[in-house]
Amino acid sequence: MNIEIVDRMNQIEIQEQEIERRQRELASRVKAPADAEKYKSEILADANKKKAILEAGACAEAIAMKGDAEAFAIEAKAKAEAEQMAMKADAFKEYNKAAKVEMWMQTLPKMAAEVAAPMSQCEKITMVMDMNDAPGEGSGPSKLTQEVINIMTKIPDSVAISTGVNLRLKSA
């Protein structure tokens, strides 16, 4: 009976050792690779997270730099335009009467063309004359030409009324 008890105890001990061996085998074959894979996944996830954060920061910085560059360009363009306007204003202040007369002489034909333009669209003009018109006022085609000239002489007054700028030369 003692032998059976000792034999049983030996079998229990052998089974316990077998269980312990299987646990070590399980740990070395399954758990250790799983832990290693888990660790690898955590490292890769952390690396991807840091990469995404850095890329987002770089994009934000690029957008900010682009905005700064556009703002600088707009500011430079505005300054250049302001300087150009100031230079034009200074040059205009320096114009004397002769320069203003020359400018008017260059502009008047263009203005006359614009005033007469509607007449160029007509195929036929019928004129009705009043035989009682005072002599010297002109009649027929000269009356039509005189009407265009009258319109042209009223332009400086119209500009002065609407803008406050007197285009007529003051006599010396």
Q: Round the mean pLDDT to the nearest integer and report it.
A: 82
Note the gap between the termini.
151 Å
Inertia-based shape: rod-shaped
Unreliable segments of 5+ consecutive residues? none
H/E series, N to C? HHH
Count of beta strands: 0
* Tally of separate helices: 3
Largest sheet: none
Strand content: under 5%
Helix content: over 70%
Please describe the structure with a list of short key phrases separated by commas or semicolons.
0% strand; 172 residues
Describe the structure.
With 172 residues, the protein is an all-alpha fold. It has a domain at 95-172. The protein has helices spanning 2-94, 97-120, 141-163. It starts with a helix and ends in a 9-residue tail after the last helix.
Concise structural overview:
This protein is an all-alpha fold and 172 residues long. The protein has a domain at 95-172.
SSE layout and pairing:
Layout: H1 2-94, H2 97-120, H3 141-163
Helix pairs in contact: 2-3
